[in-house]
Design brief:
By secondary structure, this protein is mostly helical. The protein is about 60% helix and about 0% strand. The longest helix has 25 residues.
Length: about 150
């Protein structure tokens, strides 16, 4: 219980290369990677299926994994460069356009139109609300680049 109020970080990075404030932000960035996997698993429903036949389960898992690859590709193309975007909200935008995306797969011109529309929607939407009391990870990273680091 004595350690309950502590954050213990072990690293082999020397203190002159990484301050305490920077290390705490790096830990939060690591958590963002976990949230990406959670997005794939939870919202992609990769760990659930509707059949009890092994071949159908495998087919469904592969189809869902492919869908997550397409979703991730669309996120990278549409909003990855914007740090203030919520991947959950952005993934919902991609799912909202999934039927259009699937129907356009055989026509390059139509596929380009759908992707351009998705990019426009992702640029305008899917923003995270900024927080003062508990800043988002992107706010912490931005603060590291705009303010001198505090040890």
């Amino acid at each position: 219980m004595a350690l309950a109020d502590w954050t213990i970080l072990l690293t082999n990075i020397p203190p002159e290369l990484l301050t305490l404030a920077e290390a705490l932000v790096v830990v939060k960035v690591r958590w963002q990677i976990e949230l990406l996997f959670k997005l794939w698993k939870s919202h992609g429903q990769i760990d659930s299926w509707r059949s009890d036949k092994p071949a159908r389960i495998l087919c469904e898992v592969y189809a869902k994994l492919l869908a997550m690859v397409v979703q991730q590709w669309a996120l990278v193309l549409g909003c990855w460069q914007f740090a203030d975007r919520s991947l959950v909200k952005a993934a919902q935008v991609v799912r909202d356009h999934a039927v259009e995306l699937a129907s356009a797969r055989a026509r390059l011109d139509r596929l380009s139109e759908v992707l351009a529309t998705m990019q426009q929607v992702l640029r305008r939407t899917a923003r995270m609300n900024s927080r003062k009391k508990h800043p988002n990870t992107y706010q912490l990273l931005l603060a590291l680049t705009t303010e001198p680091a505090q040890a």
